[in-house]
Amino acid sequence: MDKYVPGMMPDQRPTSPRLPPAKPSWMSDEQWERTPPEPEPRPVLDLGTVVVMGVEKGMGLRRGEKVVRLGLIRIVSVRAEQLAAITDADVVAEGFPDKDQEWFIEMFCRHNRVVPGTVVNRIEFEYV
To answer: Which region ranges are annotated with the description Disordered (predicted)?
Structure first.
């Protein structure tokens, strides 16, 4: 196949060999030979992906703290949106049933040192 047509299955899509990057003009041949290869791209999180194990806190554990496992989860929705677009229903889904939108935005901004207009990644999931 020479041309991509929308609706093609992945094995029908055209493939082209990836060309090696060109050597920058300022770099010597010796430096170019010592340059490590580019790392393989990391997989993208796809909808419907079953994550082996969701955890409550994966980073910043103190000495002796244990990872709290949530169980198997399936990704339902992944999108970027402004923090200020969060609704009261979203705040409840985040685990704060007795708080409101203003409280959540203020708390999130304080802890993450961002402003309400910051675009954040929103990942919705369901337990499997």
So the answer is: 1-43
Exposed/middle/buried for residue 91 (C-beta within 10 Å: 0-12, 13-18, 19+): buried
Are 94 and 104 spatial neighbours (Cβ–Cβ below 8 Å)?
Answer: yes
Q: Note the pTM of the prediction, 2 decimals.
A: 0.54
SS (H, E, C) 38-92: CCCCCCCCCCCCEEEEEECCCCCCCCCCCCCEEEEEEEEEEEEEEHHHCCHHHHH
* Tens digits of residue pLDDT in 38-75: 666 666 666 666 666 778 887 888 899 998 887 888 88
Three-state secondary structure call for residue 12: helix
Count of CA atoms in the C-beta half-sphere (13 A) of 33? 3
Work out the number of other CB atoms within 10 angstroms of the CB of residue 102: 11
Q: Which residues contact 94 (CB under 8 A, 6 or more apart)?
A: 104
